[in-house]
Design a protein that fits this description.
Chain A is mainly alpha-helical and about 325 residues long. Chain A has helices at about 1-30, 35-45, 50-60, 70-85, 90-115, 120-140, 150-155, 165-180, 185-195, 195-200, 205-230, 245-255, 265-285, 290-310; strands at about 145, 160, 160-165, 235. Chain B starts with a helix and ends with a helix. In chain B, a hairpin with a 2-residue loop joins strand 2 and strand 3. Classes of the chains: A mainly alpha (about 325), B mainly alpha (about 300).
């Protein structure tokens, strides 16, 4: 039964995706040039930051938690790496710095949540606001321009027949899928979400598992920040990753990962990301202003939340 | 159990004296008046947040209401509508949209943060759609309301937004502590199942809490127009965190069942003192005040946890 439901959900997702891209293609055709496949690739490339963040979010949600700080971690990692590159460091040290900072901040959230018993929502909300402030301090109110060619390659450079950001996203997806399906860590994450007491009694590393999961979410967010920066050729402390947590949660929910945890659906989450991004692209092409598009997206979350509920979502 | 309002008052008093020792000119009657006048917008949003946190929920949409409410007031007044019509309609809209969030949360059992996060982004988008950028108000009835004040001494006056905040806090205290309906909110937060078994209409009370939060936050938007004579769709960014901080500093428990509007008002005053001290100093940017508020919430929650552990 569940398998049927899951397949049906997958079909619906693909259908929605195709429909949205169809609408977008039609809109573009009305304006002039543009092909269906080209648009699909466009949507996929644009979705990479959300894709990376949503994978981390799916892990955290599978654990029964939530991470609202992802957008601010993106901004902080991007501004830190941009300052490092501007100061003369190479791209690799800057990347290492960004990933390390992202993972450390995630681990800090995880520690607050697991060791000190602070609600995930509150801990990551505090991080969301404080880290955006920290990113503004790092950037000094400036938009930091990025000229490093290696970094910019993460924007849309094509290697081995595919854009680099898509390679990156696929590799991350595969790595996390293996981690989740074939390691003790994966078992810890899903069991912690389903039944924390059982996980503890089984002797799984409950504390380490939680901290590592939030650290992974932080590192993935940092990576997403670098990709978005490469896309824009600049790191903007105010706008980088703004409201991305909503997109990521939306993708996770559309993908059918239950918000109370216990199960992670990575593939479906990525489909959810593509649906969200296709919607955004359609709205952009249809010349809907940014603010009205935000309204539409928020309404979609509200309607979805009201419709899905039950088994899939319980507080 | 009663919320430790006295403890919050003590913290506020100690910090007040401490800042007075550190900074010249702090011990002037201007400072408390400044804190009350400057805290009204956050105070109204935090008051609404108090009702929601009393039930164990959270409302992330309060900051966006400040933006959307103030912009809506400015736009409506610019189109020639009278203030006496605009304010009630706006507050009713706030209650209505809050109730929508409440219904999705209580009936469909969706986590509060998700619903109110969506509502927050909806309202932000709506604010920007109503008007892009700040919109000044020149209406005469608005100017007349801005003139309302209680003059305590020459040059010292409690403005209209502060009066609104004080009145609302008094009403909120009476409601939450004395009225059956208000106590029901606390019961829902204390133990939802027990409250339901005791005959509390749980769904209606939860919807009421979010409706009150929406109405208070919309009123906060009105207060912003009284303070600045303009509506601003960019206002109130991250204000929801300040509101949560104020409620927590006021002695409320985020798990619900414990909350006090007076405590929340004290929390707003404390945040205002920190803000004033940071701007007084002049060397620290707004990035620092965000970090300070975050650290303050965490510190408070940790202290709360330690105290609870030691009493059990």
């Amino acid at each position: 039964m569940t398998a049927v439901v899951r397949n049906a959900r997958g079909l619906v997702l693909v259908a929605v995706l195709l429909a949205l891209v169809g609408v977008a293609a039609a809109a573009r055709a009305a304006g002039g040039s543009g092909s269906f496949v080209g648009l699909l690739v466009d949507v996929a490339i644009r979705s990479v930051p959300t894709w990376l963040v949503a994978i981390g979010m799916a892990l955290v949600v599978g654990l029964g938690g939530i991470d609202l700080a992802v957008g601010s971690v993106m901004a902080l990692a991007a501004t830190l790496a941009a300052s490092a590159v501007t100061a003369g460091a190479g791209f690799v040290p800057a990347l290492a710095l960004a990933l390390l900072v992202g993972a450390a901040l995630g681990a800090a959230s995880g520690t607050l949540i697991r060791q000190l018993g602070i609600q995930p929502l509150v801990a990551t909300l505090v991080a969301m606001v404080a880290l955006r402030g920290a990113a503004q301090l790092v950037s000094g109110g400036q938009i930091l321009e990025v000229r490093d060619p290696t970094w910019l390659a993460f924007g849309a450079h094509v290697t081995l027949g595919m854009p680099v950001p898509l390679w990156l996203a696929l590799v991350v997806l595969l790595a996390v899928a293996v981690l989740l399906g074939a390691t003790r860590f994966g078992a810890t994450v899903t069991l912690l979400g389903a039944n924390p007491r059982a996980a503890r009694l089984l002797g799984l590393g409950v504390t380490t598992g939680t901290i590592l999961t939030y650290a992974a979410s932080g590192a993935l967010a940092a990576l997403a920040g670098l990709v978005e920066t490469a896309w824009n050729h600049a790191a903007d402390a105010d706008k980088c990753g703004l409201a991305i947590e909503l997109d990521a949660i939306l993708a996770v929910v559309i993908g059918g990962t239950p918000l109370r945890g216990g199960r992670v659906r990575l593939g479906a989450t990525v489909l959810g990301v593509l649906v969200v991004e296709a919607l955004a692209t359609t709205l952009t092409i249809a010349n809907v202003p940014r603010d009205a598009a935000l309204c539409a997206k928020a309404l979609l979350v509200l309607v979805l939340a009201a419709v899905v509920r039950g088994e899939a979502m319980r507080p | 159990m009663r919320p430790p309002v006295l403890r919050s008052a003590l913290v506020v008093a100690v910090l007040y004296v401490l800042l007075g020792v550190l900074q010249d000119g702090w011990f002037s009657p201007r400072t408390p008046i400044h804190l009350l006048n400057g805290g009204a917008v956050l105070g109204l949003a935090a008051l609404g947040q108090t009702f929601v946190i009393a039930t164990g929920g959270i409302d992330l949409a309060v900051g966006a209401w400040i933006a959307c409410g103030s912009t809506a007031v400015a736009a409506a007044l610019a189109s020639g509508l009278p203030l006496a019509l605009v304010v009630p309609v706006l507050v009713a809209l706030g209650a209505l949209l809050g109730a929508v969030s409440g219904v999705v949360i209580a009936v469909r059992q969706v986590p509060p943060f998700l619903v109110t996060l969506a509502m927050m982004l909806f309202l932000r988008g709506l604010a920007g759609t109503i008007h892009e950028g700040s919109l000044g108000i020149t209406a005469s009835d608005h100017a007349a309301l801005r003139g309302v004040a209680i003059h305590l001494a020459p040059g010292l006056a409690l403005g209209p937004s502060a009066l609104l905040w004080i009145l609302a806090t008094c009403g909120g205290t009476f409601f939450l502590a004395r009225l059956r309906t208000g106590r029901d909110l606390l019961a829902c937060g204390g133990d939802l199942r027990a409250a339901r078994l005791l005959g509390v209409p749980v769904v209606r009370r939860l919807v009421l809490a979010y409706a009150l939060s929406g109405a208070c936050a919309a009123l906060g938007g009105v207060a912003l127009t009284l303070d600045t004579s303009a509506g601003n769709p960019g206002a109130g960014v991250a204000l929801e965190l300040d509101a949560i901080a104020a409620v927590v500093i006021g002695g409320a428990a985020l798990e619900g069942g414990l909350a006090s509007p007076v405590g929340t008002a004290l929390g707003v005053v404390l945040l205002g003192m920190i803000q004033t001290a940071i701007t007084f100093d002049g060397r620290l940017g707004s990035g620092w005040s965000r970090i300070a508020v975050g650290a303050l919430i965490l510190a408070y929650l940790l202290i709360q946890r330690l105290l609870r552990r030691s009493t059990i």
